[in-house]
Amino acid sequence: MSDDSRPSPAPARTAAVIPAAGRGVRLGPGAPKALRTLNGTPMLIHAVRALAASRAVSLVVVVAPPDGAGEVKSLLDAHALPDRTDFVVVPGGDSRQESVRLGLDALPPEYDIVLVHDAARPLVPVDTVDGVIEAVREGAPAVVPALPLADTVKEVGPAAPGEPEPVVATPVRARLRAVQTPQGFDRATLVRAHETVTEDVTDDASMVEQLGLTVVVVPGHEEAFKVTRPLDLVLAEAVLARRRLNDGF
């Protein structure tokens, strides 16, 4: 019998983990950053909708503050979300790394691809999400969306308090990228990274790098910026206003 008679393997299933346990101190006092509103809707809801907009994403796990899982679950229940996507809320840990690991622990075994997305990047376009997933499906163990830098970057050395910092190097800008999320992973690779790398790191891709595996870059998008400071809220509102104008509502 020809091998052609065998059924094609089902495409790998994709889940997204959104750590949303941080306080967001740079935005000032008030609600946790993920619960700040854009156009009257919490950033977290925008981020969840952005990931669920991808037809490849069938499960979104939101990692809530350790004592706020009930509040976040109520928040998700109060907003319209796609029916074809499942949503789960789990309590997080004391660090982002621990929160992602707790989100991973909540994934059913049938999910082979995992996205990790910052709740503070509420406006990532679906094309960026799909591009990350496709690169993992094609065999990359870890994928990050990224943009070239517009500014020249200087490395500086230490200085006494109040004194100007000395420039010690100017990296070649053409080789630098500003990394965004969602970052995409082969699930087994990301689980191994979390089991192996013990020091706290700024992103999950750098954990995979420490395993000696190659992380690849796909094009990011200017609207996938991180809402960190008050001015970012203004920019995000402007992006939403432009989208409403373009979409006719």
Automatic annotation (TrEMBL):
<dbReference type="Pfam" id="PF01128">
    <property type="entry name" value="IspD"/>
</dbReference>
<dbReference type="GO" id="GO:0019288">
    <property type="term" value="P:isopentenyl diphosphate biosynthetic process, methylerythritol 4-phosphate pathway"/>
</dbReference>
<dbReference type="InterPro" id="IPR050088">
    <property type="entry name" value="IspD/TarI_cytidylyltransf_bact"/>
</dbReference>
<dbReference type="InterPro" id="IPR001228">
    <property type="entry name" value="IspD"/>
</dbReference>
<dbReference type="GO" id="GO:0050518">
    <property type="term" value="F:2-C-methyl-D-erythritol 4-phosphate cytidylyltransferase activity"/>
</dbReference>
<protein>
    <recommendedName>
        <fullName>2-C-methyl-D-erythritol 4-phosphate cytidylyltransferase</fullName>
        <ecNumber>2.7.7.60</ecNumber>
    </recommendedName>
</protein>
<feature type="site" description="Transition state stabilizer">
    <location>
        <position position="33"/>
    </location>
</feature>
<keyword id="KW-0548">Nucleotidyltransferase</keyword>
<comment type="pathway">
    <text>Isoprenoid biosynthesis; isopentenyl diphosphate biosynthesis via DXP pathway; isopentenyl diphosphate from 1-deoxy-D-xylulose 5-phosphate: step 2/6.</text>
</comment>
<feature type="site" description="Positions MEP for the nucleophilic attack">
    <location>
        <position position="226"/>
    </location>
</feature>
<keyword id="KW-0808">Transferase</keyword>
<dbReference type="InterPro" id="IPR018294">
    <property type="entry name" value="ISPD_synthase_CS"/>
</dbReference>
<keyword id="KW-0414">Isoprene biosynthesis</keyword>
<dbReference type="InterPro" id="IPR029044">
    <property type="entry name" value="Nucleotide-diphossugar_trans"/>
</dbReference>
<feature type="site" description="Positions MEP for the nucleophilic attack">
    <location>
        <position position="173"/>
    </location>
</feature>
<feature type="site" description="Transition state stabilizer">
    <location>
        <position position="26"/>
    </location>
</feature>
<dbReference type="InterPro" id="IPR034683">
    <property type="entry name" value="IspD/TarI"/>
</dbReference>
<comment type="function">
    <text>Catalyzes the formation of 4-diphosphocytidyl-2-C-methyl-D-erythritol from CTP and 2-C-methyl-D-erythritol 4-phosphate (MEP).</text>
</comment>
<comment type="similarity">
    <text>Belongs to the IspD/TarI cytidylyltransferase family. IspD subfamily.</text>
</comment>
